[in-house]
Amino acid sequence: MPLSLFATDLDGTLLNSSSKISVYNKEALERCAERGIVRVVATGRSYYSALRVLDEQTPIDYLVFSCGAGVLRWSDRELLYKKTFTQEVATQIGELLSQKKLAYMAHTPIPTNHLFWYDDAGQANNLDLLARIAHYDECVLGRVCAETFLNGLTQFLVTTSCSETEFEQLTHYFSPYAETVRSTSPFLASYNWLELFPKGVNKGTALLWLCKELGIAGANVAVVGNDYNDLAMLENFAAAYVVSNAPLPLRERFKVVASHDSDGVAEVIATEL
Predict the structure, then answer these.
(1) pLDDT band at residue 183, thresholds of 50, 70 and 90?
(2) pLDDT (tens digit, 9 = 90+) per residue, 234-253?
(3) Which of 34, 186, 202, 244 could share a disulfide with 259, CB 3.0–4.6 Å?
(4) Mind listing the pLDDT tens digit for each residue in 31-47?
């Protein structure tokens, strides 16, 4: 089927190790535009964080951000879609996290969901939490308190270095209350993030929503990612690829292209055009 929409993850996929879009990847995205193909970046970053690595010259048409909690049109930055936890559900999840003594961050509603509260759960040695607070120091609102939940939240981000078995147990525990998304921490690879979003929120459902809005069939879509938070996106479309720097479980399930440092995005586009 002819390609009508191409979606790529950002960090570790479109961006190389220097957090840049290579010349070849950029040229490939520009070729998509010449053929009328819609270009989408689907990232776990908030819109605020995405702007640290994207600008008005970036050759894309839409941004799916915060793992699918929001979608905006790149040309005029119009927000088209957003999802938020209600105050009631956010409060309930906050209580469960405290009971489990988990270190987490709670992000305010879109469009200011780069702002967050945090609870270290007494884990003064949680190096990943400390690294994220330091990296986004201008976004920290303070420690979690009653005010945190008043207006609802976009997401919770739990940071942990627990075992695979323990992580799976946490995912199972929270799945009745939220959409659970696993990510490898970009700060410390020994930590994993369990991101909790409103039920139904992920990159896959956001892309399906966008396809419906644009009248594009799933058979005309190609996607590429590199980590577990891309899984819903990869599972929803037949033309699904991962770059070679993706974890082994993903490489065993999906078509593999060159790494993020060797223009894997350009390879997917060349294959699908």
Answers:
(1) confident
(2) 999 999 999 999 999 999 99
(3) 244
(4) 999 999 999 999 999 99
